Amino acid sequence: MATQTTPKIADLYNVEETVQRWTEASRKAGNEYLDLYDKAVDQLTELEVKTAAATKLPLVSQLVDTHVTLTREVAGVYVTAARDLLKA
Prior knowledge:
- By secondary structure, the protein is mostly helical.
- The protein has one domain (10-87).
- The protein is 85% helix and 0% strand.
- It has three helices and no strands.
- It is rod-shaped, with a radius of gyration of 25 Å.
- The model has no long low-confidence stretch (mean pLDDT 91).
């Protein structure tokens, strides 16, 4: 009497390949999101600088320059940390 064995899911589907493709797609999407985030921060801070310059008030321009510098640095640290996590 022959016994039938039920095939394992891993035998029917290439699970490792699927996981690898999923991981690569997730990393790509994550990096694209970070590119967009970085670009959005740059555009918004540039708008902030132009708006402050339009006021023609030196104090406002100085305040905004400081704020923009801080915002860009924080965003840069966030993006760098997130990219490092995506590499792992």
